Write a sequence for this structure.
């Protein structure tokens, strides 16, 4: 079994080094306006006038920072530093604090609202940059964002974090669900990425307040977000955590199954770990039983009787890690085989072996949607790059080569 793990790790490392990162290095650097391109088409053509998204730049920062730290290859440092410089110089709101959501191609504000989801990714990217460089300045920037979110976005009445605010942090906004004009005050997605960000921040900043907040996010996930009767996440909520939607996101379920475990493990509370473990297994089991196909692909989502059966790059990446995590927790061979099948499907269908990177979407019949970009506001190197690096680190741990 160890040989199988090593083989998978070697293939993923090769994918990271020879396909994913080179695409972003060669096709996305914006020499005219700075930072990285807001969009790159499926054939690698840069759209110079495309808007630049906070989440994309924060995820690029995280990816190249992690690559620097894990591989030790200084080649990636220039791209890490470029992402850090642009994020902090252009997305930072020097007057009201926090990060702007969207910039025009020239770096001027386009949408200046404060989306909590975006602030979380800024913390995530900055914290990983600190892990790679030890930068005290970046750590202070991450801590400042943490304090802003606790001051403005944290819900004192019911816990968790609201969705978005005006630029001055005064007016909270929810998410329009389009279902009878209902407005969701909170979402699973924002809480999940807050948990992810605070986990990474705790790795570089030992703080009792941060510990409490991360523990609370885990508790909220266990108590309100996971539907224990189905093994899936609820996705949208009223402020008091009353669920608002029945839709299931298989990708977030499998991603959350390992991010939740990682958060509890970094926190190190044995009692919380014991409570979290079966929930993580339940999430992975539900996706395995309901969404995983014989060829290793993962259906996108389900709402009632309707199933969206297309495949997307990020689900495939998260499935590899999520099923491997379930295997490590249970030692059930079905999860290891699921991770391997997910990787095989990805190699055969999602990876662009000619032009680099992974395709965004493949339909139920196996046709690639080439109208969708390789890089964009939501298309990034974080899901697939992270899957590669997560498995690389896990194999090192299993071999005793890293603490």
């Amino acid at each position: 079994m160890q040989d199988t793990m090593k083989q998978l790790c070697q293939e993923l490392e090769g994918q990271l080094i020879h396909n994913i990162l080179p695409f972003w290095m060669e096709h996305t650097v914006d020499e005219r306006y700075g930072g990285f391109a807001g969009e790159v088409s499926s054939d690698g053509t840069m759209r110079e006038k495309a808007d630049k998204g906070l989440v994309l730049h924060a995820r690029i920062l995280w990816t190249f920072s992690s690559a620097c730290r894990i591989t030790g290859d200084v080649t990636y440092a220039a791209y890490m530093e470029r992402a850090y410089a642009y994020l902090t110089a252009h997305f930072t709101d020097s007057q009201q604090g926090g990060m702007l959501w969207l910039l025009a191609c020239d770096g001027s504000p386009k949408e200046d609202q404060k989306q909590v989801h975006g602030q979380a990714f800024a913390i995530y990217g900055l914290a990983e940059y600190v892990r790679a460089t030890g930068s005290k300045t970046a750590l202070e920037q991450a801590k400042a964002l943490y304090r802003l979110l606790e001051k403005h976005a944290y819900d004192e009445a019911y816990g968790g974090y609201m969705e978005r605010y005006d630029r001055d942090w005064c007016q909270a906004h929810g998410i329009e669900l389009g279902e009878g004009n209902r407005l969701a005050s909170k979402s699973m997605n924002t809480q999940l990425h807050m948990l992810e960000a605070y986990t990474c921040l705790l790795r570089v900043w030992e703080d009792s307040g941060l510990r409490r907040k991360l523990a609370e996010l885990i508790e909220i996930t266990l108590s309100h977000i996971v539907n224990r009767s189905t093994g899936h996440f609820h996705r949208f909520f009223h402020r008091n955590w009353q669920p608002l939607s029945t839709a299931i996101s298989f990708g977030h379920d499998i991603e959350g199954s390992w991010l939740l475990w990682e958060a509890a493990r970094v926190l190190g509370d044995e009692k919380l770990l014991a409570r979290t473990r079966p929930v993580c297994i339940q999430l992975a089991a539900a996706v395995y039983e309901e969404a995983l196909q014989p060829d290793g692909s993962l259906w996108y989502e389900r709402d009632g009787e309707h199933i969206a059966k297309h495949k997307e790059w990020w689900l495939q990446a998260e499935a590899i890690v999520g099923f491997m995590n379930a295997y490590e927790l249970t030692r059930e061979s079905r999860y290891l085989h699921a991770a391997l099948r997910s990787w095989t499907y990805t190699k055969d269908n999602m990876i662009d072996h000619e032009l680099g990177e992974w395709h965004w979407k493949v339909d139920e019949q196996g046709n690639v949607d080439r109208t969708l970009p390789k890089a964009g506001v939501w298309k990034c190197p974080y899901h697939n790059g992270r899957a590669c690096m997560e498995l690389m680190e896990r194999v090192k741990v299993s071999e005793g080569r890293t603490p």
About this structure: Residues 2-27 form the longest helix (26 residues). DSSP finds twelve helices and 17 strands in the chain. The two ends are 21 Å apart (CA to CA). The mean pLDDT is 96.
